[in-house]
Amino acid sequence: MPLDVRALLCLCLQPCGPFPKLTPQFPAVSKSRTAFSLTGCGIRRQTFSFAGVERIIGGQRARDGEWPWQASIQLDGIHRCGASVISNTWLVTAAHCFRGLRNPRRWTASFGILLRPPKQKKLVRRIIVHERYSDFVLDHEYDIAVVELASAIEFTSDVHSVCLPEASHVFPENTSCFVTGWGALKNDENCC
């Protein structure tokens, strides 16, 4: 019986429940970094600023640990797409990343904002592309996939899951929204 991507996402994105409280030990570089503590999924370090243009092209380099749920999906060891950590064994990403390339043995996932060296790297057990996604239609409808890892991610302050707000949550006007991933900082520049 095929797995329904929607049902799996609903299961993985349930309220996170109690998340282990982490208080990592940092070198004595900055008092603001040593005060960091993690109390739930979807929590980033609050010590970073967001100066500059925040667009997909024209963005800025992320700092280590700034987006702990960002993953790199890699084909034969080469970055192909970004993904979000939704549990310690599941990622969500775009279905078009796997167009014609769905053999999980060729894929790995890296965690921690830097591509090299990654903080953690995991093999992929399986790739589940939305059943209504088409490799041959380029309109990106149903362009969602989930990736099951062969082993669990060890959650740390630099690598952990994202979570979504309750459906009833109302965002205040002018709330900031951030897009993360690997890409060019300028037009006509190579990725990553």
UniProtKB/TrEMBL annotation:
Database matches in InterPro entries: Peptidase_S1_PA, Peptidase_S1_PA_chymotrypsin, Peptidase_S1A, Trypsin_dom, TRYPSIN_HIS
Gene3D superfamilies registered for this protein in UniProt: Trypsin-like serine proteases
Sequence ranges assigned to domain Peptidase S1 in this UniProt record: 56-192
One GO molecular-function entry: serine-type endopeptidase activity
Classification via PROSITE patterns: TRYPSIN_DOM, TRYPSIN_HIS
Biological processes annotated in GO: proteolysis
Keywords per UniProt: Disulfide bond, Hydrolase, Membrane, Protease, Serine protease, Transmembrane
Superkingdom assignment: Eukaryota
Pfam families: Trypsin (PF00089)
Protein name (Swiss-Prot/TrEMBL): Transmembrane protease serine 11e-like
